[in-house]
Amino acid sequence: MSDSEDPSVGPRVYRVPDGDDRERATCPECGFIAYENPRIVVGVVARADDERILLCRRAIPPRIGYWTLPAGYMELNETAEAGACREAYEEARANLKLTGLLAVYSLARIHQVQLIYRAVLTDPHVEAGPESQEVGLFHYSELPWDELAFPTVKWALQHDHQAHMEGHGQAFANPTTEED
Amino acid sequence: MSDSEDPSVGPRVYRVPDGDDRERATCPECGFIAYENPRIVVGVVARADDERILLCRRAIPPRIGYWTLPAGYMELNETAEAGACREAYEEARANLKLTGLLAVYSLARIHQVQLIYRAVLTDPHVEAGPESQEVGLFHYSELPWDELAFPTVKWALQHDHQAHMEGHGQAFANPTTEED
Ligand SMILES: [Zn+2]
Ligand SMILES: [Zn+2]
């Protein structure tokens, strides 16, 4: 349902499939069962050499004109880390090096899990991609708190600041010798 | 496609939808477009008071008879943390308290991202749920390394051991005052 552009086609009738324990969206025309699961958003708090933080002003709904972190849906056939780097390039033409996982936020009501990484820009040049009106680099004290697009952007900026000030351990990722 | 029990129905023809930049599975009968994204597996390395680690011997394919950590697909309308606790109860009747995120593993080829938490058992009683043949508690030195179900189980056990020995920071989660 949430994946379809058109609510009048595709899986839209909820019933419990044989052998399952909860209702799933089923297509009454073709019988296809959609096992809907939360979707992963990958994003990044990227800092320049002078510690300014990269934000993008949204050119697309929702929240057009508000500032956000580079982030978007993780695609098939990429790692979470590769997805975060891809989004940073698509939205801000940013080239960066990830330095660890900052946070995992569960947004149960909107069926999202956000994986937010920390990063440093490897090239100071950034510019707006097609989904951004403009990009900006902000010192923490100058962040546009009143014009942030989503609560999770605020959470991530505050957590990144806390991590930056206190030092910060991080979750493990795939062992590099045994990558998928 | 990967979500359907029956490959002859539902989204199975790949084409690039209008306004998109990559091929998506589309149903030729009803026109439904499946935006397939990686699925999230939530799991847990849980330790008892005596530091033994909880494993389950699988009663279902794949890898029947091999040992695994409590883990499974995250469902809609739950947080990652709630999903990890749910799986521990379903597979091992375990009650536990999460102590932080251990690792994020991207398994790009099989379209999974695994979120593995650390936990302590709050009740020493555990027993096999319907998807487990038996459950066991093992000291690290006694783990059944040759009978583990999946590489990620080995990764998580090794990372948990490393975290246990060295101390270990962890990723942030939703601020508790602003949970979704
Ligand atoms: Zn259909
Ligand atoms: Zn169809």
From TrEMBL, chains A, B:
InterPro entries in UniProt: NUDIX_hydrolase-like_dom_sf, NUDIX_hydrolase_dom, Nudix_N
Residue intervals of the Nudix hydrolase domain: 37-160
Region named Disordered: 1-20
Origin superkingdom: Bacteria
MF-aspect GO terms: catalytic activity
Annotated Pfam families: NUDIX, Zn_ribbon_Nudix
Designated name of the protein: ADP-ribose pyrophosphatase YjhB (NUDIX family)
Organism per entry: Spiribacter vilamensis
Organism ancestry: Bacteria, Pseudomonadati, Pseudomonadota, Gammaproteobacteria, Chromatiales
